[in-house]
Structures are given as structure tokens and as C-alpha cells.
Amino acid sequence: VVCFWLLTPSSLLCLFSSETVRAGKVLVVPVDGSHWLSMKILVEELSRRGHEMVVLVPETSVLIGKSGNYTTKYFCVPYTLAELNANLDHIKNNAFEKPPQLTDIFVNLGNLMRFTDMQVKACEGLLYNESLMKSLRETGFDVVLTDPFLPCGTIISDSFSLPAIYFLHAIPCRLDEAAAQCPSPPSFVPRFFTGFSDKMTFPQRVRNTLMTVFQKYQCHQLFASFGELASRYLQKDTTYKELLGNGAVWLLRYDFTFEFPKPQMPNMVQIGGINCAKKGPLTKVRCLST
Ligand SMILES: *[C@@H]1O[C@H](CO)[C@@H](O)[C@H](O)[C@H]1NC(C)=O
Ligand SMILES: *[C@@H]1O[C@H](CO)[C@@H](O)[C@H](O)[C@H]1NC(C)=O
């Protein structure tokens, strides 16, 4: 190795790096929909750098597909494409097409729970498919790269005793922060749906704190089925939050340039810029917000 010539501490690093630069085998457990679009950029780049990427794809999916740049393994799911699309439309119409109102929380929560219930059933089908799981286990992966919005990847990494790399923007009700024991003071980290910034007046802080309490309840509702599946499959008493807390690295599609600053843990890495990797020309039409 060339680094032998250098008498600096970095020469030591180079010695070790000759070991660590070997290509790895990465099991990718994505979440369908827009979540996949930015994860795909990372998966393709890692593949280009010589790592073996195996992507687990639900048989029925909106956006995850085959590519010459990574291997795909399909698993059966108990729903049709029409059912999946109908479910996603419900979420989209309420959550994205208009600015969220406080009263939308319950509608959104209901829609989200219908979607996650569907996905948890799919995840169950994957986990309990013994032949598929056996073949994955025998592949000898080094790491699991997953979007923890859904529990499959996290459960697999625990079951295979592999480090989990998370790729996400955020998890509803801030379960990510709770799991990582990341401080998130309601005095200056605005909760979703409040429309507040990091600089709040006293009454706003009070409302933000009330929202924090409400979100704890939301978390309980949303992730109960994840915890139930994890406990049953891994045969130990656990919750999704506890499982999530074992993650090795959190790759966050977050950036303080676009979003309010907030505390982060040392194993959280901001990769918000990845959202800009696919560039397109700006339109000439200027949008004026009304
Ligand atoms: C593989 O990735 C390259 C960019 O790295 C892209 O140009 C090409 O279209 C991709 N191939 C497939 C089959 O998606
Ligand atoms: C398990 O997965 C394999 C590969 O995706 C599939 O061919 C098989 O039908 C599945 N088995 C069950 C019981 O779903």
C-alpha cells in the first residue's frame, strides 16, 4: 500500500482501509413509493462502487422495479396493485394536496394505519417464507440497508444479527428520535402539523408540548402492530422503538439549509442533499405563493 510512505497517523488508517474497502454484500429492504426514489440513488451508487446490492421487492409495488444495477428478490404480498394504489391515494389526497389542518390528524392517522396494516401483512408474508429467508440468511450479507418507516428490514437485521443502516427523512410521531434517545425539546423543535418554527412564543411552546404528548399516543397506535410482529417473529418481548434503537447509522434525508435545526445523535448523518441528486431544469413559470 502506498500509504506506507507517509509517516502520519493517516498511514495507519490506510493500512486498515486496505481491508475495509473490500466490496460488501448489502441487503436492501426498501419502502415503496416516493421513499424509494432517493434510496435508489444510494443503492445504484453503491452498486457502481462494486458492492453487491440485493433489493427485496414486494411482488406488487408502485415504484420499486428491476434494474441492471442491482439484484432483485421478489416476495409475495396479500394485496393487488389496485388495492395498494387506492390506499396510497387516500394518504396522498389528505396529506399532500392541501396544507394540513389540525383536524386532519385523525383522518391522516386512520389512512396511515390502513396503509401500514397492509404493509405489515406483507412483511409477515416475507418473514414467514422459510425458503426465502433461508436463502437470504445463507447469502451472508454484511449489512442491512433499510427504510425504517416499515418494520421488515429492522426485524431482519435483528434476526440475522446484522448492523442496520437506516435511510429516512423522519418517522411519524418522531419515533426515530425517541428510539435513538435523541433530545427533542418541545421548546424549540416544532412538531408536525403545528406550523411553528424553531422560534416559538410561550403559548406556541405550550401548544407544541401538548402536541408532543398527543404524538406519544399516536406512536402507540401506529406502531403497536410492528411491535407485535417483531415480538412474535423474534420470540422476545420487544417494541418497535426498542428494536429501532439498535440501528448502527441513521442516514437522514434532512438538511439544516431547508429545515429547522434540531439536536442529532453522533450516528446520525445528514444526507439531505441526495434529494437534489436528480436535477432537472427549472421551469420559467414563477410561482407566487398565495
Ligand atoms: C444504472 O446506473 C446508471 C448510472 O449510474 C444509469 O445510467 C443506468 O441507466 C442504470 N441502469 C439501469 C438498467 O437502470
Ligand atoms: C416464498 O418466496 C418464494 C420466492 O419469492 C416464492 O416463490 C414462494 O412462492 C414463497 N412461498 C410462499 C409460501 O409464499
Descriptive account of the structure:
There is one protein chain. This protein is an alpha/beta fold and 290 residues long. It has a single domain, classed as Glycogen Phosphorylase B (Rossmann fold). Helix content is 44%, strand content 11%. The protein has helices at 9-20, 34-48, 81-95, 104-127, 130-139, 152-159, 175-179, 202-234, 240-244, and strands at residues 25-29, 52-58, 71-75, 143-146, 164-168, 249-252, 268-270. Helix 2 (34-48) links the parallel strand 1 and strand 2. The longest helix has 33 residues, at 202-234. The relative contact order is 0.11. Residues 1-19 have low confidence and may be disordered. The site of one 2-acetamido-2-deoxy-beta-D-glucopyranose has 6 residues, from strand 3 and helix 5. InterPro entries: UDP-glycosyltransferase, UDP_glucos_trans. This is UDP glucuronosyltransferase 1 family, polypeptide A1.
